Amino acid sequence: MPLSLRVAVLGPESSGKSTLVQALAGRLGCAGMRVACVDEYARSYYANRPYLPSLADVEAIALAQCRNEDMAAQQADIVLCDTTALTCRIWADVAFGGASGTINRLCRDYRYGLTLLARPDIPWQADPLRSHPHEREWLLGLYRQALATQPERVVEVYGVLEQRLEQALSALDDVLP
């Protein structure tokens, strides 16, 4: 079986990543592709525990996120990753002043055929796991800075969902065999 194409969907809090992943999965599935979605593991991690993150929590989340990607890649042609270890690295940098060696290694070792970077140009939606409603542009800058050092192709998506979806599909056309 050929290797799966992994697509990272990144961006600041409340920038439409999960919505875009679901819309992409629906569109690609209708086109006959075997698609797997890897949800943001932090949501599962904090579902039954208080949201009092530590660096050890962020590392555990990054490890599980990558493990879930690996499992999904065994079953699909395209793996849509609703966040990656890079989000954990940025989270650790912002909240704790730096990431662990494990998180940095995961960021170095995991590669994506395409990275979609969602701009925060849609309204903020409050959520118990979100904490930076006024820093989304600053966080976008952190993603841009981190991605500038990566070999992956990065495409920024913006606008309403249908615009983002069309931008993402166009970018996928360039990387699909």
Automatic annotation (TrEMBL):
Q: InterPro entries given for it?
A: NAD_biosynth-regulator (IPR052735), NadR/Ttd14_AAA_dom (IPR038727), P-loop_NTPase (IPR027417)
Domain NadR/Ttd14 AAA residues, every copy: 6-164
User: Which Gene3D superfamilies does the annotation name?
Assistant: P-loop containing nucleotide triphosphate hydrolases (3.40.50.300)
Q: What is this protein called?
A: AAA family ATPase
The organism named in the record is: Craterilacuibacter sinensis
